[in-house]
What does this fold into?
Amino acid sequence: MRITVNRKNERIYPDPGRVITRYFDHGELKANSIINKIIGLSEVEAETSLNTILMEFAKRHRNITQIFLVNYTKMCRTLGTAFANIELSFIKKLLIGSYFTMEYSIESAALFNPSIVEHPDQNGLEDGQKRIIVSFRATGESHISSLVFRSGIIDKENNILLDPQGNYISEAEIIKGYEYSKAEFIGILREHSIHNNISSEVFDQLDDTFYYIRLKETIKHAQENQKLNLDQKKTLKEMMWLAKSHYEVVFSLDTDISERVIFPISRTESNGIEDARFVKFREDDGNIIYFATYTAYDGYTILPKLLETKDFYHFKNLPLHGECTRDKNFALFPRKVNGKYAMLSRIDGVNQYIMFSDSLTVWETAQVLWEPQYNWELIKVGNCGSPIETDAGWIVISHGVGSMRKYCLGAIMLDLYDPSKVIGSLKEPLIIPNEDEREGYVPNVVYSCGSIIHGSELIIPY
It folds into this structure.
């Protein structure tokens, strides 16, 4: 059977002009020097300097003065009480904040690995149209990856019409810690072989549910009031590392989706939020939740994580746990299968696996689903997003790595009622890199993180 692949002409390129503001940490010595110089300015000099900065940057960011004030406050927390007793005018606080602020171009290196889902709002469309959200991995200076979005419409001819980008791009307006269950947190520590006498002492002082700040205070008290050995110090450090990997972000309602960026927040993802695979998940009661599995990378270690949202304004972020949450390539099925959550993975770095669980975040067992078989996938195989349900079975767009580390896209089909069974596969690649697609951030690669069916056609952003 021959499959027709119709490559569309739409191209989405990285835009180095898409910048966000970040806190600029100078280190204590240089920070003290900067602040003392600004303190020494007259109010007229300070106001003149601030006005010059605002003239240059106010049009590039939404409410730049609020950003300066936030970074001034963060600077005060970082330096402790050094300037606590000094009375400063509002103008000087803003001016100091500007020196602790920098711009970061989130797409200066690359924009790639897209995932596509149906938009939560399908109102106001013509017959045959579908509103969509496309996510991308954006990579900037120091190769730090973040998550960005575009919206658009697929028309009845399956043309993709993306909406214009917003004028500003920024991180979430609110970032808050996660409420933990003591029992669940202890279980997570045991999975990581962390739970011991010092962690037990800490938990003895916590309620059955607690927030990150309470855990931080309790750990700090233990560090300051006990003589700890190296193992105990390591345990407390790892407890904080795990706690920081849970968070929630909320974007302002006046932002366009193209203006929202999820930039690494926790230490576990400090070097990148990689390859988010979004899926529209239908719960047993019919409610819809969007999930995205992604890889958190801190420069040394990878950690599979999960994003949850209903509206793309409010996101919850949780790590995945269990014996089988290793390596990359996690992709959640769009509904439960036979009463259990189902997930694709690649826990050994080579083969594609399928996993089932009663819990969305705990995955303990897995079985091999597909091993490299053909020349174009001999090095390793993996998925390119969540399985897509059809009457004939589950379509899984796969990727295979062959000679010269060339990535191609393929496809397998799983049994609708028992997706651990492969009932069909393509012997030849579905998509290979064309000559004009071979060069880029990583040469000889075509890759996707999620597809969608519209009408009778499968649409694969790659």
About this structure: The longest helix spans residues 64-79. The mean pLDDT is 93. The two ends are 23 Å apart (CA to CA).
